Amino acid sequence: MIAVAHRGETAEEIEQLVEQVTWIRVGQLGKIIRTFRKAEVRNAVMAGGIRKVGLFSNFRPDPRGLALLARIRSRDDDQLLRGVAGELEREGIRILESTLFLERIIPAEAGVLTRTRPGPEQWKDVELGVPMVKRLGRMGIGQTLVLKEGVILAVEAIEGTDAAIRRGGESVDGSVVVVKMSKPQQDLRFDVPAVGPGTIEVLKQVGGGVLAVESRRSILLDREKLLAAADDAKIAVVAVEPEPE
What we know:
Layout: E1 2-6, E2 20-24, H1 29-38, E3 43-45, H2 54-57, H3 63-72, H4 77-90, E4 94-96, E5 111-112, H5 120-138, E6 144-148, E7 151-155, H6 161-169, E8 177-180, E9 194-195, H7 197-205, E10 210-214, E11 219-220, H8 223-232, E12 236-240
Parallel strand pairs: 1-2, 3-4, 8-10, 9-11, 10-12
Antiparallel strand pairs: 5-12, 6-7, 6-8
């Protein structure tokens, strides 16, 4: 197994998990293709993500990357990632769904995942937040919304989920509800919403009360540790099934 990893984005521990790592800068599409072709790779999975700020501070496109940008003329996550996947597939490298081997850490159905359960008012915030996040996702704005008692405290933008939670949670006196959903147009090959123990730690720091994710389309990193940490902090974690649009 080999990997291509992004400097400044991918954890260096990846070198302990695979046989070979090629380090690149964000945008070096040609180097990705050369690495995979040399290793005769035919199937690949995109795992993890690139911080949006990395598109400004860590962006070093090579000629193949620049050619792609010139064609799609968009900085929207979905368009960029679909464009990268299309370039790889034209070279005979098929991009598989990132959830392919992750069934154990993906909520299979809607329900409360922790012993801690949301209160009635918190459920109202979840029900309010889910369709709102879906609309935001359709516009390419973000996947996360922070609410309390029907008031929107923060919308995720370029800063990412944890920073949005901090921004929203620090504006009120605790008990915030965080809703994180996939985009309506979500391509499961990449950018599937993910939360982990770190998400719970941030919620704990701001006195958060509920984390709502989407069943069958969300990844719970270190699931057992995440849920145990949530129960210790009296934070409810729920999986919800949005209404069809």
